[in-house]
Amino acid sequence: MKKFTKEENSWALYDWGSSAYSIIITTAIFPIFYKGSATAAGVDTNDSTVYLSYTIAIFTFILAMIGPILGTIADYKGYKKKFFFFFFFLGVAATALLAFIPYDKWYLFLICYTFAALGATGANVFYDGFIIDVTTNERMSRVSSRGYGLGYIGSAIPFLISMVIILLAGAEKIPLSEINASRIAFLITAAWWIIFAIPMFRNVKQIHYIEREKNPVAQSFKRLGKTIIEIRQYRALFLFLIAYFFYIDGVGTIIAMSTAYGTDLGLQATDLIIVLFVTQVVAAPFAILYGKLAARFSEKKMLYVGIFVYIIVCTYAFFLETIADFWILAMLVATSQGGIQALSRSYFGKLIPKENSNEFFGFYNIFGKFASIMGPLLIGLTTQITGKSSYGVFSLIILFIIGIIVLIRVPEPDKAPKPVPVDAV
Fold it and tell me: What parts of the sequence cross the membrane (predicted)?
């Protein structure tokens, strides 16, 4: 297979930059920082985890509601990159702002985190849609997996720098408190994100589009309505989205809540950060491996493998007690986290009409984000009822089982009926 093109590499490099947000803000440093802030303000540890769960549910609900219509508008010529830039700027600005909020204002951290998450996840809706513009169906799984692979490697670098600064501050080797060291990590995240977004803005263009019309917003609502009404011709897409709704819920929830869960179990912040760094390093080759194995065995079969691994993860998490257990759990997640996300994106990309890629990735987003509401709420409610986080994590196993049952009914992309583009040119 030929080397990656300039457009493919530029697209993948955005993942290299933006994934710093995923590890530092979503998964590792910010959750620990927030938990410390809430605890210092007298908030119970279980309650602070619940508040974080509800915050994630709120911002995912907002994006889920606006995603499809924004995606539909973005299918018009020249709109995709404009929407991408708006959410990119919102995410970067809010991430940097986290560094300047007073430490005792834990609720302000959650508000700012909401805007940062809206920006990051919103930009990813249009970033995912650009995969249609940078590559072909034959190369899509490999390019998608490369994006996730580079994301893990690229995010590990600013994470390592941030971790070293925080550890040195904790050991009083540098004239910084651990709180201020974490603030620097937020600024590093924003800077890294900006730098590696530049190739994306310079080299990636919207190739597939619909010509502009008068009253594009009104026309977009009409196109969206037509797609919903004629959903029967998109049976393969619809079934895949239902399966995706369930299994990606569990994946996203485990990513977002892993450090908060570890903290509730009494694991030290330093141990959590080290484990998460190694997870990033291990996940990179496995994400790329998933892409190569998908080319040999099919994407669908590799999705089965990834879901099965997560079922094991949920089961093992129920018995988690020590740092050694957390290491084992993290390595299991590392083997499949990037692969299942990358192949879901490329599998969906092969099923949709290219001219309406943003509209359909808007649906992809809404199913993914509504799923992300259910998972955190499930953990939050179960934790409140039982008083134990382990029961909440174990309950996610239901979502993976339902997801794999529905996925069995989804045809392979080359065997699925091709939907007719909606008002495409």
Answer: 12-34, 54-76, 83-101, 107-127, 148-169, 181-201, 236-260, 272-290, 302-320, 360-379, 391-410
* Structural domain count of the chain: 1
Boundaries of domain holding 378: 6-205+218-407
CA–CA distances in Å: residue 358 to residues 122, 125, 209, 365, 425: 12, 8, 9, 10, 15
* CA gap 111, 114 in Å, rounded: 5
Give a yes or no: residue 382 inside a domain.
yes
R_g of the chain, CA atoms, integer Å: 21
**Higher-scoring residue by pLDDT: 350, 270:** 350
pLDDT of 223 reads 66
Long-range contacts of 105-113 (CB under 8 A, 24+ apart): 105/37, 106/34, 106/37, 106/38, 106/40, 106/41, 106/43, 106/48, 109/30, 109/33, 109/34, 109/37, 110/34, 110/51, 110/52, 110/55, 113/25, 113/30, 113/34, 113/55, 113/59
407 three-state secondary structure: helix
What is the model's pLDDT at position 110? 93
Burial 332-349 (b: 16+ CB within 10 A, else e): bbbbbbbbbbbbbbbbbb
CA gap 299, 141 in Å, rounded? 8
Q: Is residue 272 assigned to a domain? A: yes
pLDDT tens figures, 205-255:
988 777 776 776 666 667 667 666 655 677 888 889 889 988 988 887 776
Predicted confidence at residue 389, as pLDDT, reads: 65
Q: Is the pLDDT of residue 282 over 80?
A: yes
Name the pTM for this structure. 0.78
CATH code, domain with 160: 1.20.1250.20
Q: Is residue 413 part of a domain?
A: no
DSSP state of 215: S
pLDDT tens for each residue of 162-201: 989 988 998 889 999 989 999 999 999 999 999 999 999 9
DSSP 64: H
